[in-house]
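Task 17 of the worksheet. Students: predict the tertiary structure of the chain below and write it out as structure tokens. Keep your answer in the requested format; marks are given for formatting as well as content.
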Amino acid sequence: MPRFNHPPFAYRTPPELSGAPPRLAPVIIVGAGPIGLAAAIDLALHGIASIVLDDNDVVSVGSRAICWAKRTLEIFDRLGIGEVMVAKGVTWQVGRVYRGAAELYHFDLLPEPGHKMPAFVNLQQYHVEMALVERASAFPDLIDLRWKNRVTALAQSGQGVSVEVTTPDGCYRLAAPWLIAADGARSSLRAMVGLDFAGQAFEERFLIVDVEMAAEFPAERLFWFDPTFHPGQSALLHKQPDNLWRIDLQLGPDADSEAEKQPDRVIARLRAIIGERPFEIDWMSVYTFQCRRLARFVHDRVIFAGDSAHVVSPFGARGGNGGVQDVDNLCWKLAAVIKDEAPVALLETYNEERVAAADENIRHSARATSFMTPHGAGAEALRQAALDLSAQRAFGRRFVNPGRLSSPSSLSGLSLQTPAVAEGGVEPGSACPDAPLRGLDGGPTWLLQQLGGSFRLLACQGASAPAVPGLGVLRIGQDVLDEQRLFAARYGQGLVYLIRPDQHIAARWTHPSAEEIAAALSRARALTRASAVPPPAAAKPDIDTDRLHDRADDVYSALITALKHAPPAEVARLLARMTLALANLAGDADAAIATIQSVAQDQSPLS
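Model answer:
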């Protein structure tokens, strides 16, 4: 029985049907989940009005997305709900990985001090949506939020978009120059535009349960491979607010979804984990997952964001976080285009930057899934080898993949960033690291709070930043003070940065001229065309040269000795451990990958 009361939001007859003067806005947003609501608020902060249409009248049922990463929290803080989320949510930064009952290792996602936002906050999606709805109400002249308004048809012209909307009072047509499709993984707008959602579906099934109970488990991410309470599978435990706990259990590809949702079976699985303590099931589901994305996110006047554009597995918390970061990337660009401050070509960089980020998230997601659900004896031996090494040697932990947790995607080398000529500091394309500062009035403040949501120059202590019309400057040591020296540790000294409205670094210099700054600003607004800089191609490794010389027999003998006493069933696992250890010793990932691929292709037929 869900403990959260989902109060319905009031439906109001839209002015198009009531006879009142219709409201006009340059942007229609379809979907009032976290992505659509965040987009409406972000646009409002730039002075852009939107009409938000949602076919429901309540926030999401079930906790759904719960893990909100530091970068996403910083975006939410800029939108006005970051502190609310931290106050309500469960803060954590330590994760522990187990094999059976034994801890293999633990990690700390934020080992250094001096950040306003924590590494992660666990907070149910319905709480986030409620906070966003409340925040949206602060913009009555800029956000028209319409519940029970279902979009049933869409048409585009060169000048804009029109949609057919169905409500309890009938149907109406709504038009605007732009539309953001934030209607989720089952996006009807995606189908209306006729877009293929290419990708991969995974057969593995998982049971996800939110349990209400009083428990002493720490506020940490706990992940098990082959746990004693669920042999042969994996399990994940997260603490949430309100005495709720998220439990994910791998079931295998052949599990019967309906049978696994039967109360007796679920309760038996939960009892194996939590013992005889009292509990209540708040919400549960059996799910499979997919990794998919649109080929492009920008389709003329319709722009896709969040799950309507890309979906990933839940491992690594890259779905909701990735969607919020879509909004962060898109809305300043769309606002600039609407205000005639930038050409429409600027929106193409949303496609460029966020498709790259989606590919990164999908790659991490698919790799985590492959590690958790190995197929074939070779993959199973390799996973066991990685787990063996992680228990014995620190480098082995890099090969263990219980889900690479969400982190901001670098925009380095993409077209809006000016390549750096200065050494040190933070690379162009990176999200700005936060740092504690002190205002001239003596009050504490934070770097990201001072940067805000517009283009800014950031001048480190000892740097000179020439004036550029229309571009504000934040001078460390003059406008704000770096008393803890954490800003200097992260950004360096004597450097000047150009910061984008989404708080990513667009350029970095030591002694820039006004002309150099203006050129970088023009590039960051797509007023001048620039191509992305492709990463340098990896050199083909030379694996044919004899490097062991007369020690080759010694190496071969060592291998024979190591394998001689290994039981036949353990040989593949031992060879896999050796392969991983030697790859780490080589210290060159590109060379190791190319060598593995080359040797695999060179296999001779068995005689």
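Marker's comment: The longest strand covers residues 198-212. The chain is about 35% helix and 25% strand.
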